[in-house]
C-alpha cells in the first residue's frame, strides 16, 4: 500500500525516518510503520514522524552522512554499515558467532551489547535499539551441503571486510554488485550465489533463481536504530523520554515477533516451490571448521571480551 | 500548489535560455530554501550521490563511448551497405534500408540523435541522389532514428531503471519486441507509400552482395551479439558473463579494438588519405601506441564531453527528485490522482499527456528522472507492470523527439539534412501517425513489452 | 559557431583529463569483468573507484562545458526574440547561473568541510562566516578503496594518528567544492562576455551539435 503522507501540523517537530525496504512485508519496514503510527498517535501536537521507505530518500550509506549533517533524524541501517564508525560491529558478521536469534537477542541486551550502542557517540551517532531481521542462509545455483561445494563459486556480498574474508575462507569469490541487479545476476549466472535471511530471500524471490537454500544460520543480519547525538541533545527531556519509550516498546514488540516472521518467510519459500536443504550435525561442523578461523583476523577489531561474552551467552541456549 | 510553482520555475528558467541542468538545480534549491528545512549541504550530497549511489548510471558513459568508437569508424557505412543489399530492391527500397540501418545502429547505440547523425548523414544524401525527395528522406530518418532509445541498449532505459529501481537487463529485453515491431511498422508504411507514389526501386545485387556486405559489417554486428550474450547468456550453452553496466564497458573496449585493429578506420594503422591501411604485423608497436593515439584520445574526449552534458542534466534532475521526495510530493500527487478515481486507462492517458508535453521542453533522460518517481507509485497501486510503464514512457519520449515545437530529432535531422526545422516537421508528420498508432498498441497491449522479459527472466517482482 | 577543441593550453589539459578519466573508468570496469570471468577472482574496489571517477568526470567537466557553451538548453524561444530582448534574456539567464553556482559552492563546501576537518559556513543560504564549533568527520572512510600507503602522512595530519584502512572520504569528495568553484569561475567569465554583448545565449540546443557541424562542413566541401 502507499505510505500515506503524514501531513505534519505546524509546530510539530518533524522526525524523518529513512530506510531501504518496503513498508508492509519486511521486518524493518513493518517496525518503522508501527513506530510511525505510535508516534503520530501518542505525540500528536508535539512530534510527527514521516517514513521514507525503499531508499527513496537515502540509501544506508548516505543516510548516516545526512544524519550527522542534521538532514534526517532516524534510520536503521544493517549492522555492517557501522563498520566505518567502529569495528566492534564486525562481531555480527563473523560466521557462527551466535547460536540462534535468542542468543543474538541476549547478547544485544547484555552490557557488551549495550556498550556497542553507545560506542559511536564520540562520532556523533547514538544507538537507540537493535532491530532483528534474522540469521543468514547460503544459496547457490548448485546444492551446497559441504563447504567444498562453495569452492570456486562467485558470491554476491555486502561491502564488508568480514564477509569478504568469510567467502575467501570458503574458497569462493566475493563479488560486489548493485542490489537491483542481484536477482538478474543470479538468474543469468553472472554470480552463482548469495547469503541472506529468510525474509529477504522470500521478498527478493532469490529461491526462484537458485538451486536451493542451505539452512546454515551462519551469520546475523540485524539493524540498529540510530539518531544523531546532536539531535537527541536538542530535544527537551520530556519529549525525548516519551519518544524513546515509544521506540523501546516497538523494538520489544517487533523483536519478539521475529521468530514467527522468520518461520513464516521460511515456509513462504517452501510454499513458493523453493528448495531448502538442512545440514546434518556433521555437515554443519564442517562448515564451522572452515569458516570459524576467520575470527582470528578480526579479534582485535571486535575485542576478545565481546567474543567471550557472546560464547558465554551461546552456552545458555 | 507549491509544486506548480516549482515546475513553473523550471520551465520558465529553461525558456529564457538557462541551461536545463541549472534550471533544474536552481529551482530545486530555491524551493528547498523556501519551503523545506533541509540544508544546502544535502543538495551537494545529492549531486555527488547521483554518481556514487547509482551504479547502473555508469552504463551511460560506456554506451556513449562504444557508440563513439563505432561511429568514428565507418561502421555506419558498412551497416547501410548491408541493409541496402538486403532490402534495397523493394519498392522504396533505399528508404526501407534506411529504417533497417537505423534499427541495426540502434542496437549498437543508446541514443536517438546519435542514430540520426550516424545513419542520416549518409542515407539522406544517398536517397536524394537516387531520386527521392529530400523531405521524404529526412522524414524517414528522423522517425526511424527514434528507435535508438527503444531498441536496446538505451540510455533512457538505463535512466528509467535507475529512477524506479528495476533491473536494467529486464528493461533492455522489454525493448526488443517493441523495437522490431515499430521498425517493421515504419517499413510497411514506407512500402505502401512507395507503391502509391511509385517511388524508386533498387536492383537486387544478389546473395553474393548480401554475404560480402554482411562480412564487411560482421565486426560491427558482433557488438550486438556481445552485448546480448554477455547480459543474458545463451540458454543451455553459457550463463551470462556480465551485468548491463559491465556489458557497456566491454562493448567500449570491443568497439575500440574493432575500430583500431580490425577495420583500421582510426588509430595508428589507418592509412593516410587515399592509401591502404597498414597491417598489424608490419607495425606491431601499434598494440601499444593505439591506446594513446590521437584518434583514441579524441574519441574518448568526445564521448566524455557528451557524458558530461547529459549526466549534468541527469544529476540535477536527481536533485529535483530528491527535493520532491523530501517534501513527500509523490505521495500527494498519488493521493490526488487516486482519490480523483483514476483507473489504469485514464492514468496511462494522463502519463502519456504529461510526457508528450514535458518532452517539448526537456531532454528525455532528465524528464524521465522527474516524472518516473511521480507516477511510479500510482502505477504500482493500479497494478501496472513497472516494465510495461517503462516502455510506454520510452515510446512517449520517442514521439516527443519528433513533435514540434521542440524535438531533439527534428533539430538533429534539420542539421544533418541542411533543411529548415519547419520543413523537417512537415516531412516527419506522416510517419508520426505510425508512431502514434504504435504508442496506443504498446499502451494497451502490455504483452508486447512484458512477454520477452517475463519469458526469459520470470515475472517482475514488485516490492512496494 | 562551435569552438574547436584544444584551442589553448588549459583546454588541452582539461580535454586530456576528460579522456583519461573516461578511459580509466572503462578499463577498470573491463578489468573487473576479466578478473571475475577469466580468473574467477575480483577487484573489490573497482566499482567504487569507477563511480568516484564518474563523479569527477562530470563535475569537473561541467565547468569545461560552460566554457565551451556545451550545456544543453532550450533556445527555441530565444531564437524568435529580437536581438535586444535576446540580450536581456541572456543577462538574466547568466545571472541565474551565477546564483546557482554560488549556492552550490556554499552547499558543496558545507558538505565537504567537516570531512576534511574544516568548519562549515554559517547561515542558511548566505555564508555568514565560519562556524566555530563542529564535529570533525575526517575519520569517515569510503567502503571499498584501500588506503594507499603513500598517503600515510594523512593519518597524523587528519585522523589523530589513527590508521586508515580505507581511503578517507574527504579525498574523493574534494571534487565537489573544487568543481563548484571552477563552475562559478567559468560562469563569471561567460557573464562578462554576455555583458559585453559578445554572446547572446549560453546553451547548446542538443547533444550532437559538433557532429552536425562536421556533417555540414563536409556537405559544404563536396
Ligand atoms: Na539503442
Ligand atoms: Na517535441
What would you say this structure looks like, in words?
The complex is a heterotrimer of chains A (317), B (464) and C (222). Chain A has 317 residues and is an alpha/beta fold. Chain A is 43% helix and 19% strand. Chain A is built from 13 helices and 9 strands. In chain A, the strands form 2 sheets. A 6-stranded mixed sheet of chain A has the order 6-5-7-4-8-9, with helices on both faces. In chain A, strands 2-1-3 form a 3-stranded parallel sheet, with helices on both faces. In chain A, strand 1, helix 1 (27-42) and strand 2 form a beta-alpha-beta unit. The longest helix of chain A is centred in the last third of the chain and has 20 residues, at 237-256. The relative contact order of chain A is 0.17. Chain B has one domain. Chain B is built from 21 helices and no strands. Chain B has helices at 2-15, 20-35, 40-52, 59-72, 75-87, 93-106, 112-129, 134-144, 155-164, 168-197, 206-232, 244-262, 286-289, 294-326, 329-339, 344-358, 364-381, 386-401, 408-417, 421-444, 447-457. The longest helix of chain B has 33 residues, at 294-326. Chain B is globular, with a radius of gyration of 22 Å. Chain C is mainly α and 222 residues long. Chain C has a domain at 71-219. A two-stranded antiparallel ribbon of chain C has the order 1-2. Chain C is flat and about 65 Å long. Chains in contact: A-B, A-C, B-C. At the A-C interface, helix 2 and strand 6 of A face helix 2 and strand 1 of C. The structure holds sodium ion (NA) (2 copies). Chain B: It is a multi-pass membrane protein. Chain B: InterPro entries: DctM (IPR010656), TRAP_DctM (IPR004681). Chain B: The chain crosses the membrane at residues 7-35, 47-70, 82-108, 114-132, 139-160, 172-196, 217-235, 241-263, 306-324, 336-358, 365-384, 390-412, 424-447.
Amino acid at each position: 500500500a502507499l505510505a500515506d503522507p503524514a501531513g505534519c501540523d505546524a509546530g510539530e517537530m518533524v522526525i524523518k525516518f529513512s530506510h531501504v525496504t518496503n513498508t508492509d512485508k519486511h521486518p524493518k519496514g513493518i517496525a518503522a510503520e508501527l513506530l510511525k503510527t505510535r508516534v503520530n498517535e501518542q505525540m500528536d501536537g508535539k512530534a510527527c514522524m514521516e517514513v521514507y521507505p525503499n531508499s527513496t530518500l537515502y540509501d544506508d550509506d548516505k543516510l548516516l552522512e545526512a544524519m550527522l549533517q542534521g538532514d534526517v533524524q532516524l534510520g536503521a541501517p544493517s549492522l555492517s554499515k557501522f563498520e566505518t564508525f567502529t569495528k566492534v560491529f564486525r562481531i555480527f558478521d563473523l560466521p557462527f558467532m551466535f547460536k540462534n536469534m535468542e542468543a543474538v537477542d541476549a547478547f544485544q541486551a547484555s552490557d557488551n551489547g549495550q556498550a556497542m550502542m553507545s560506542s559511536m557517540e564520540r562520532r556523533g551517532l547514538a544507538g537507540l535499539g537493535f532491530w532483528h531481521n534474522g540469521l543468514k542462509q547460503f544459496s547457490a545455483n548448485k546444492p551446497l551441503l559441504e563447504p567444498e561445494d562453495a569452492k570456486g563459486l562467485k558470491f554476491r556480498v555486502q561491502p564488508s571486510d568480514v564477509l569478504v574474508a568469510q567467502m575467501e575462507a570458503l574458497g569462493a569469490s566475493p563479488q560486489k554488485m548493485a542490489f537491483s541487479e542481484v536477482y538478474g545476476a543470479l538468474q543469468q549466472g553472472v554470480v552463482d550465489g548469495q547469503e541472506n535471511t529468510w525474509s529477504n530471500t522470500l521478498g527478493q524471490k532469490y529461491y526462484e533463481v537458485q538451486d536451493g537454500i542451505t539452512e546454515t544460520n551462519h551469520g546475523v543480519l540485524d539493524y540498529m536504530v540510530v539518531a544523531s547525538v546532536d539531535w537527541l541533545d536538542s530535544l527537551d527531556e520530556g519529549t525525548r523520554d516519551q519518544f524513546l519509550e515509544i521506540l523501546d516498546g516497538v523494538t520489544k514488540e517487533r523483536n519478539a515477533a521475529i521468530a514467527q516472521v522468520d518461520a513464516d518467510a521460511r515456509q513462504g519459500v517452501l510454499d513458493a516451490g523453493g528448495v531448502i536443504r538442512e545440514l546434518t550435525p556433521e555437515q554443519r561442523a564442517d562448515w564451522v571448521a572452515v569458516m570459524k578461523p576467520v575470527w582470528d583476523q578480526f579479534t582485535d577489531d571486535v575485542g576478545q571480551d565481546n567474543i567471550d561474552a557472546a560464547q558465554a551467552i551461546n552456552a545458555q541456549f | 500548489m507549491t509544486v506548480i510553482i516549482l515546475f513553473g520555475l523550471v520551465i520558465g528558467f529553461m525558456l529564457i535560455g538557462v541551461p536545463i541542468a541549472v534550471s533544474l538545480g536552481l529551482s530545486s534549491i530555491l524551493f528547498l530554501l523556501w519551503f523545506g528545512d533541509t540544508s544546502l549541504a544535502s543538495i551537494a550530497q545529492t549531486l555527488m550521490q547521483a554518481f556514487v549511489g547509482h551504479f547502473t548510471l555508469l552504463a551511460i558513459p560506456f554506451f556513449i563511448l562504444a557508440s563513439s568508437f563505432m561511429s568514428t569508424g565507418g561502421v555506419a557505412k558498412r551497416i547501410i551497405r548491408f541493409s541496402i543489399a538486403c532490402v534495397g530492391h523493394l519498392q522504396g527500397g533505399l528508404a526501407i534500408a534506411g529504417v533497417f540501418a537505423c534499427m541495426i545502429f540502434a542496437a549498437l547505440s543508446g541514443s536517438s540523435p546519435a542514430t540520426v547523425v550516424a545513419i542520416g548523414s549518409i542515407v539522406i544524401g544517398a536517397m536524394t541522389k537516387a531520386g527521392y525527395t529530400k523531405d521524404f528522406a529526412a522524414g524517414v530518418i528522423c522517425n526511424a532514428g527514434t528507435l535508438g532509445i527503444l531498441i536496446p541498449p538505451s540510455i533512457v532505459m538505463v535512466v528509467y531503471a535507475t529512477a524506479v529501481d528495476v533491473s536494467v537487463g529486464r528493461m533492455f529485453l522489454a525493448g526488443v519486441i517493441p523495437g522490431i515491431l515499430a521498425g517493421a511498422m515504419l517499413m510497411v508504411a514506407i512500402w505502401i507509400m512507395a507503391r502509391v507514389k511509385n517511388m524508386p526501386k533498387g536492383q537486387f545485387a544478389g546473395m553474393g552482395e548480401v554475404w560480402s556486405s554482411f562480412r564487411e559489417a560482421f565486426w560491427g554486428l558482433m557488438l550486438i551479439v556481445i552485448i546480448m550474450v554477455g547480459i543474458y547468456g545463451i540458454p543451455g550453452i553459457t550463463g551470462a558473463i556480465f551485468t548491463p553496466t559491465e556489458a557497456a564497458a566491454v562493448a567500449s573496449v570491443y568497439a575500440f579494438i574493432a575500430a583500431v585493429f580490425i577495420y583500421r578506420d582510426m588509430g595508428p594503422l589507418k592509412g593516410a588519405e587515399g592509401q591502404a591501411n597498414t597491417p598489424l604485423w608490419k607495425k606491431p608497436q601499434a598494440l601499444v601506441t593505439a591506446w594513446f593515439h590521437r584518434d583514441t584520445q579524441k574519441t574518448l574526449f568526445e564521448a566524455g564531453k557528451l557524458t558530461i552534458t547529459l549526466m549534468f542534466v541527469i544529476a540535477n534532475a536527481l536533485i529535483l527528485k530528491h527535493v520532491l521526495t523530501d517534501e513527500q510530493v509523490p505521495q500527494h500527487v498519488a493521493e490526488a490522482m487516486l482519490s480523483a478515481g483514476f483507473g489504469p486507462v485514464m492514468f496511462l492517458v494522463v502519463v502519456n499527456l504529461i510526457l508528450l508535453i514535458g518532452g517539448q521542453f526537456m531532454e528525455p533522460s532528465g524528464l524521465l528522472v522527474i516524472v518516473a518517481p511521480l507516477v511510479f507509485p500510482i502505477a504500482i497501486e493500479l497494478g501496472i507492470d513497472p516494465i510495461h510503464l517503462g516502455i510506454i514512457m520510452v515510446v512517449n519520449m520517442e514521439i516527443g523527439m519528433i513533435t514540434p515545437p521542440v524535438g531533439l530529432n527534428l533539430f538533429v535531422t534539420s542539421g544533418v539534412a541542411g533543411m529548415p526545422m519547419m520543413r523537417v516537421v512537415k516531412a516527419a508528420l506522416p510517419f508520426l501517425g505510425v508512431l502514434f498508432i504504435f504508442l496506443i498498441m504498446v499502451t494497451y497491449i502490455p504483452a508486447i513489452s512484458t512477454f520477452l522479459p517475463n519469458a526469459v527472466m520470470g515475472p517482475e517482482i514488485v516490492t512496494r | 559557431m562551435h569552438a574547436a577543441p584544444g584551442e589553448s593550453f588549459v583546454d588541452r589539459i582539461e580535454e586530456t583529463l576528460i579522456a583519461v578519466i573516461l578511459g580509466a573508468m572503462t578499463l577498470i570496469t573491463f578489468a573487473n569483468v576479466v578478473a571475475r570471468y577469466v580468473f574467477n577472482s575480483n577487484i573489490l574496489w573497482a566499482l567504487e573507484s569507477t563511480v568516484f571517477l564518474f563523479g569527477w568526470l562530470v563535475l569537473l567537466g561541467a565547468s569545461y562545458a560552460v566554457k565551451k557553451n556545451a550545456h544543453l538548453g532550450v533556445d527555441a524561444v530565444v531564437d524568435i526574440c529580437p536581438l535586444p530582448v535576446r540580450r536581456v534574456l541572456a543577462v538574466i539567464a547568466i545571472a541565474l547561473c551565477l546564483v546557482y553556482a554560488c549556492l552550490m559552492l556554499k552547499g558543496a563546501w558545507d558538505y565537504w568541510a567537516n570531512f576534511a576537518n574544516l568548519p562549515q559556513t554559517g547561515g542558511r543560504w548566505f555564508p555568514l562566516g565560519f562556524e566555530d564549533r563542529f564535529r570533525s568527520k575526517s575519520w569517515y572512510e569510503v567502503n571499498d578503496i584501500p588506503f594507499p600507503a603513500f598517503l600515510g602522512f594523512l593519518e597524523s595530519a587528519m585522523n589523530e594518528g589513527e590508521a586508515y584502512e580505507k581511503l578517507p572520504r574527504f579525498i574523493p569528495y574534494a571534487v565537489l567544492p573544487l568543481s563548484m568553484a571552477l563552475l562559478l569561475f567559468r560562469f563569471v567569465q561567460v557573464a562578462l562576455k554576455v555583458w559585453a554583448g559578445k554572446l547572446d545565449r549560453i546553451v547548446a540546443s542538443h547533444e550532437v551539435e559538433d557532429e552536425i557541424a562536421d556533417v555540414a562542413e563536409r556537405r559544404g566541401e563536396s
